[in-house]
Amino acid sequence: MLDLDDLEVETLRLLLNYPEVSLTYSKRFPWVFVDEYQDTNHVQVELLKTLVHADSGIICAIGDPDQAIYGFRGADVKNFHRFKDDFPGTREIALTRNYRSSKIILEASAAIMGKEKPLQCESPGKPVSLAHCRTEPEEAEMIVEQVERLIGGTTYFSLDSGRVASHEGELSLGFGDIGVLFRLNAQGEALEEALDRSGIPFVRSGQAPLINRYPVNILWRFFQTLQSPDNPYYSQRYQAVLAVTGLGTKAAIEGFQAPTGIRGGNSPPQATGSRF
Predict the structure, then answer these.
(1) What is the rounded CA–CA span in Å between residue 140 and residue 148?
(2) Is residue 263 part of a domain?
(3) Tally of domains within the chain
(4) Residues 190-224 pLDDT 10s
(5) Nearest-CA neighbor of 241 among 217, 225, 211, 271?
(6) Under 8 Å CB-to-CB from 203, ≥6 apart: which residues?
(7) Is the pTM of this model over 0.85?
């Protein structure tokens, strides 16, 4: 059984051991485009080097070393800085204008990263506010408080507790005018609980993690149980996910049995009078 990392390693081994295979795919894909190059790992770079030949391949990569956030997965931002050495003859084009962030945000980002000069921008924007929160629930409650202030209070408790003053909410904003952005999907759990507790309606966008989707959730728990049969937690979680999906019932198990009349081995199928 191979995971995604193993597939990269085995593919690289194939291309290195069989140059004719590498040449075949190099001719098949003469143009190679790589996005988020700052998040590549060593194996991925070596794969590109086997596919992009100086005489037959063209590679274009885009990335930003300041957005390198996947080092915990094996990514190495040094790959970005070595790009011109790994692929001689390439030309670098610097994109210095930002079209989606305000000037104040860009200046604050540059200050945090120690940049001498921020990216160029046309929009001035509004001041950035910093909130120091020690825990995820505390952060979620802070966000709920800000929503209540923008709305002008959602309950009498908002006014009685002093969380919202009577003069606030003059912008006539509705819940649909407010959005909360977070980087990691896991951060949404505490926020959902805080919004529910405050009675603030919301719609959470984005996809559920892959391991929580059917049928990946079943396969994931199955392989955990298979690898560690003596671990009661894995076994319990596997049985639980089967119960939720209904696959652990007797009817579901019988549904996987071959129907009567189907022959095994090399026997030819039986002819019928049906027409298609």
Answers:
(1) 12
(2) no
(3) 4
(4) 999 999 998 899 988 877 777 888 888 899 899 99
(5) 217
(6) none
(7) no
Residues 6 or more apart whose Cβ sits within 8 Å of residue 21: 14, 15
Q: Is residue 68 within 8 Å of residue 38, measured between CB atoms? A: yes
Range of the domain at 122: 98-130
In whole angstroms, what is the distance from residue 268 CA to residue 263 CA? 8
Last-in-domain residue among 170, 198, 226: 198
19 and 35 in a single domain? The answer is yes
Taking a C-beta distance cutoff of 8 angstroms, is the pair 191, 197 a contact?
Answer: no
Same domain, 30 and 46: yes
Neighbouring CB atoms inside 10 A of 46's CB total 16
Q: What is the pLDDT of residue 206?
A: 76
Using N-to-C axis directions, what is the helix angle for 216-227 and 232-245, rounded to 10°?
150
Range 166-192 burial, b when 16+ CB lie within 10 A, else e: eebbeeeeeeeeeeeeeeeeeebebbe
- Low-confidence residues in the chain, pLDDT < 70: 54, 153-171, 248-276
Check if the beta carbon of residue 97 is closer than 8 Å to that of residue 70.
Answer: no
Residue 200's φ and ψ, nearest 5 degrees, are: -90, 120
